[in-house]
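Internal ticket #5521
Category: modeling
Description: The requester needs a full-assembly model to guide mutagenesis choices. All entity lines are attached below as received. Residue total reported by intake: 418.
Assigned to: D.W.
Attached entities:
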Amino acid sequence: MAYRETPRMRARKAATRQRIVDATLQLVAEGGFGNASVARVAERAEVAIGSVYRHFESKSELFAEVFRNATEIEVNKVAETLNGEGPASERLTAALRVFAQRAIRGPTMAWALIAEPVDPQVDEERLRYRQAYAELFEKNLTRGIKTGVFAPQNTRLSSAAIVGAIAESLVGPLSPAAEGLDGDAAQQLTEDIAHFCLRAVRPIEGEGS
Amino acid sequence: MAYRETPRMRARKAATRQRIVDATLQLVAEGGFGNASVARVAERAEVAIGSVYRHFESKSELFAEVFRNATEIEVNKVAETLNGEGPASERLTAALRVFAQRAIRGPTMAWALIAEPVDPQVDEERLRYRQAYAELFEKNLTRGIKTGVFAPQNTRLSSAAIVGAIAESLVGPLSPAAEGLDGDAAQQLTEDIAHFCLRAVRPIEGEGS
DNA sequence: CCAAAAAGTGAATAGTGATTCACTTCTACT
DNA sequence: AGTAGAAGTGAATCACTATTCACTTTTTGG
């Protein structure tokens, strides 16, 4: 026998894999998943087409991993904000702002994550992605209800509805067809989304717990 | 010369076209647009593949027409309800119920119209479809604000957010992956969606105009 | 009945892009 | 230096469907 896996090789392999993921991520950020054919990914990563398949079972699997990567960052930002200081209602507002502002900054990526038609395996990841947000919001709602800053409600439904409300409000402006928003319009949109969601969960005035 | 277009032939041609549309509609209702290949449509409509192309420029155009057909019915039902008797808030509740209940009854079709990845031409129609709902809701909001049953707000944004909230709340339960809802769960879901949206637009208690 | 024109047919073609695989190059160990 | 085994290669293949088009059938008015 002769060849044995060695740390150096392991590192090299991991690096190549990462280059493929990064190349895909770039291409998606530039033009969505539709922009990331295997041939293009290979070219950008400076590997042969076949090499992509040494590292990933299939294109779907590559996409799923890329989706997870991109998504994790976003979800974490929102989670951080939701877990920050202050009353639940203020945290929610701040989180909605973070979500919207980040989406508006990187509209192509946001659109790819939120709405681009891709394939079933990515759709599954997308479901999880939205689910992840919904769970974060749900926790926030539950706490807010306890402290009385939100009205009692079906938190499961409300959190899904919040995710939908944000997504739908953004999809129009984010879609590749639309021209971008200027700073003011982005600001206004962000605030209006936050207000809508806050109104939907706030308690009825004049009724204490 | 000899052949001239005659009422009889015109009718026949229209009937064939309609059979193609109906066949497509059926296939979409059964399994979404992905289930409706040209070959299958032709088979179901009992025409040759080529005949489909005598009536439609392309598959996309056929799909766009089918989408419009299916959509029109739904939008009209909601419009009727919104324009019914009673205060704007009650009409909105009723319309949200109609939307949700109909979607739950025909989940595959609803999913195809709301969320299924298809092609750019259908996506365009889908944009219009959501837009149509948004406009209906927007009119209702505007009236409700005038009569004081809703709080003053950015009606454009709120109507989009309502559409998103309904869609997102339903997409999970409607997706082909999910198993259907029983009657009670459907009822509950419907009510919770309506409540969420109503809370989002209602005025702050104790503040008159 | 006949010729002109349209409607109807479906096997063959074409476009796209993912996936394979026989082959080459590189690495690690004796 | 030799070699086992892995990593890397990319032209060729495959898979899937939409679309075409040469041909057949039907309809109609003379």
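Resolution: model delivered.
Comment from assignee: The mean pLDDT of chain B is 92.
Ticket closed.
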